[in-house]
Amino acid sequence: MAPTLGHAWGLDFDRDFDEQKKPWEEVKAQLPSYPKDENLQAFYVSGIAGNHYFVDKTTLETDKDGVVRYVLVIKARGGATNVSFEGIRCANRERKIYAIGHADGTWSRAHDSKWQPIDSASSLSYHRALADEYLCPQGEMVSSPKDVLRNMRGAW
């Protein structure tokens, strides 16, 4: 029996097409350690942004599900600090907040932990800046945390 064209090339068309149809499945995110100031990497959001924005370098993760996960720290001019564990899915231009950090170094699950579109209109959107400039340049997920940090350092 002569091989079919696909087998002659070593291809399995049924398997290849079935794999493309698989629904996206999110990797179960692991709660990171609470951020320390010495691990924070600043990133630029906008010239009109009044807050200071950072990611914890030790928590940056590029996962096989296409999500870049990180701990975000926002320091307001008035002294308030917000901490969250988040992810950005480059392929769909979406964001998700997994957990909120507290001043005592503990985490609580975010109340509205679902994928939401990233607002492209606001120049104050840190999610837009993270996606467009640092995590998903040209709409593609960076290949490693080192690339994210290189992008952030190059922006200054």
Automatic annotation (TrEMBL):
InterPro entries per the UniProt record, alphabetical: CNP1-like_dom (IPR014861)
Name the record gives this protein: CNP1-like uncharacterized domain-containing protein
Pfam family, one: CNP1
Location of the CNP1-like uncharacterised domain: 20-153
Source species of the chain: Sulfuriferula multivorans
Highest rank taxon of the organism: Bacteria
